[in-house]
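Hi everyone, sorry if this is the wrong subforum. Our group has a chain we'd like a structural model of before ordering constructs, and none of us has done structure prediction before. Sequence below.
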Amino acid sequence: MITTHFWNDLNADGLWEQGEPTVDPGSITFNSIDDQDQYGAANTFNGVYSETVVAETYYAEVQVRTNQWQFTKPNAGDDSIDSDFTQTSENTYYRTARTEPFVVDANGSVTVDVGLVAVTAGS
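Answer:
Right subforum, don't worry. Here is the predicted structure as tokens:
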């Protein structure tokens, strides 16, 4: 199983801290490196998305609207409270970020977290 938490990093420090709310920013996919398996969801999952997957090596990819969100800095601290995504591209409409590859073992679980900073005028 892969679980993802999306949160609004209110102070943009890359760490998920008390009082920083979960958000539903866009879409996420879990892509297998070992074959063509792909899992994912979009938009409304109350800031937490979980997917049961087969044991393989994956990377996760997130897409958010450019005019609403930017990604916070990745790997700012303890893996249980920091963002695991690094931005890989941006166009007029979307920003995309992904994780490093990770292994999901049989009957195991992995959590990857997405810290987002709300876009303000002039960002």
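For your construct planning: The mean pLDDT is 88. The first strand starts at residue 2 and ends at 8.
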